[in-house]
């Protein structure tokens, strides 16, 4: 293994993910572990150079005072208290804290700044090969950031021992299934099973207008399709998953543990009992993107904006029809293209179009029309709990309106959603 590591023992501080990031920003790898980590577990971690204990103001979790075992404290590794329980007071000032952290990591522990994406990838390739041996791995590949980066990493580690399954449920954005095929089948020469399940999903969704039922049908049907594909393949022992660090770090004051084993493809029947391969589970989102870039994935995949699990299905309001779904897909493509041309790609957190299930009167070439409106939405947020509306230049909104009303069939109006969250939510359904 190539990377030195500093282990943070979580004694209940909410600051620990930030502390881990600070250490990583010094170029040294860091992981957060529960306060009751055992000596055996510690010994199993590679290249640990030091321990940091951090419990915030009082090392209390759920009203119970906690501490680390004496074994860990006397295991021979340097120990730093980054809270108020140590002998030396932990500095309050940020610059002093950074210096204390850097002194500990480099001078006291003698760690090397060797946390780079290339080293991470080399280590993961070795770990994946060790875990998987000559067995086969299955991966549900959405084309989203997380599963695409896992796919690229697994392809590098085990090549054709990996089978990727991409399900086109008809609710993907324009060009996405084609991009998955181009990148993974043609450029990376992966075993890719492409499942055209468009009719299957849209038939199941026909006439269903309740948003919760739509989501449930999409989720359940996805599991069914994936299960069918898994059963067609012989000898699969492992399931790759795009679990990332924020998925397993519980926010708030509880001590860090794998809160939910985060079965991304949860709901598979018990007889399909795969062991999980989760090579990104220690990466923050920006690190996942950097990893994808280092593995040669295109920017349009790696820097993709967040996309809801049920896809365009929740932007085609009410009961989904094929023609209205097409209007969502085409208008979304125009919006994305225009935002990219205006330099807003990567600057605005999320932007998309919504097509409601009512029509209004309009006129085109002197003839009366009765068509749908398209709602444009562009928001910024830090944590998705609240969101503000992007101040899109009026001329750009006018240009997008002109294009959508002339290029997208069945549309005669555009509206811009001015509602922050709250009182709206980011998505409409
Ligand atoms: N259309 C699809 N085809 C294949 N797998 C899918 C598809 N949609 C979702 N999945 C699988 O389900 C997982 C969870 O999907 P979700 O939409 O919640 O995205 P996510 O957690 O942001 O991950 P990603 O960035 O990989 O899409 C994905 O990582 C992928 O493994």
From TrEMBL:
It holds the Pfam family NAD_synthase. The keyword Nucleotide-binding applies. PROSITE patterns: GMPS_ATP_PPASE (PS51553). Residues 115-304 form the GMPS ATP-PPase domain. Keywords: ATP-binding, Glutamine amidotransferase, GMP biosynthesis, Ligase, Nucleotide-binding, Purine biosynthesis. It comes from the Bacteria. One of its GO terms (cellular component) is cytosol. Gene3D superfamilies: 3.30.300.10, 3.40.50.880, HUPs (3.40.50.620). Pathway: Purine metabolism; GMP biosynthesis; GMP from XMP (L-Gln route): step 1/1. One of its GO terms (molecular function) is GMP synthase activity. Its EC number is 6.3.5.2. ATP binds at residues 142-148. InterPro entries: Class_I_gatase-like (IPR029062), GATASE (IPR017926), GMP_synth_C (IPR001674), GMPS_ATP_PPase_dom (IPR025777), NAD/GMP_synthase (IPR022310), Rossmann-like_a/b/a_fold (IPR014729). Catalyzes the synthesis of GMP from XMP. PANTHER family: GMP SYNTHASE [GLUTAMINE-HYDROLYZING], GMP SYNTHASE-RELATED. This is GMP synthase (glutamine-hydrolyzing). It comes from Oscillibacter hominis. The lineage of its organism: Bacteria, Bacillati, Bacillota, Clostridia, Eubacteriales.
């Amino acid at each position: 293994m190539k990377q030195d590591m500093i282990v943070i023992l979580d004694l209940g501080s909410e600051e620990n993910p930030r502390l881990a990031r600070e250490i990583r920003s010094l170029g040294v790898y860091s992981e957060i572990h529960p306060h009751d980590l055992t000596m055996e577990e510690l010994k199993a971690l590679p290249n640990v150079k030091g321990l940091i204990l951090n419990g915030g103001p009082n090392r209390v979790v759920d009203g119970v005072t906690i501490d680390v075992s004496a074994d860990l404290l006397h295991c021979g590794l340097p120990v730093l208290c980054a809270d108020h329980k140590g002998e030396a007071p932990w500095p309050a000032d940020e610059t002093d804290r950074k210096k204390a952290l850097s002194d500990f990591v480099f001078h006291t522990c003698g760690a090397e700044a060797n946390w780079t994406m290339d080293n991470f990838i080399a280590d993961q390739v070795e770990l994946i090969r060790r875990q998987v041996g000559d067995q086969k791995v299955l991966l549900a590949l959405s084309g989203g950031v997380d599963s695409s980066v896992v796919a690229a990493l697994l392809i590098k580690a085990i090549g054709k021992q990996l089978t990727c399954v991409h399900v086109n449920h008809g609710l993907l954005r324009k060009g996405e299934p084609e991009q998955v095929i181009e990148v993974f089948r043609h450029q990376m020469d992966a075993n890719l099973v492409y499942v055209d399940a468009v009719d299957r999903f849209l038939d199941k969704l026909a006439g269903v207008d309740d948003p919760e039922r739509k989501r449930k049908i999409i989720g359940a049907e996805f599991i069914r399709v994936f299960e069918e594909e898994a059963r067609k393949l012989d000898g699969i022992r492992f399931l790759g998953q795009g679990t990332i660090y924020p998925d397993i770090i519980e926010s708030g004051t509880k001590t860090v543990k794998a809160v939910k084993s985060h079965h991304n493809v949860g709901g598979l029947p018990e007889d399909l009992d795969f062991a999980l391969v989760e090579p990104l589970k220690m990466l923050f989102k920006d690190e996942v993107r950097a990893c994808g870039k280092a593995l040669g994935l295109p920017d349009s995949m790696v820097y993709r904006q967040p996309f809801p699990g049920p896809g365009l299905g929740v932007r085609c309001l009410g009961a989904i029809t094929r023609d209205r779904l097409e209007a969502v897909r085409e208008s979304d493509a125009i919006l994305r293209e225009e935002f990219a041309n205006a330099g807003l790609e990567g600057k605005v957190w999320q932007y998309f179009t919504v097509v409601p299930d009512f029509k209004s009167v309009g006129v085109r070439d002197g003839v009366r029309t009765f068509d749908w409106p398209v709602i444009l939405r562009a928001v910024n947020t830090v944590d998705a709990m609240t969101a503000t509306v992007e101040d899109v230049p009026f001329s750009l909104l006018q240009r997008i309106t002109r294009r959508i009303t002339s290029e997208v069939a069945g549309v005669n109006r555009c509206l811009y959603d001015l509602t922050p969250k709250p009182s709206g939510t980011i998505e409409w359904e």
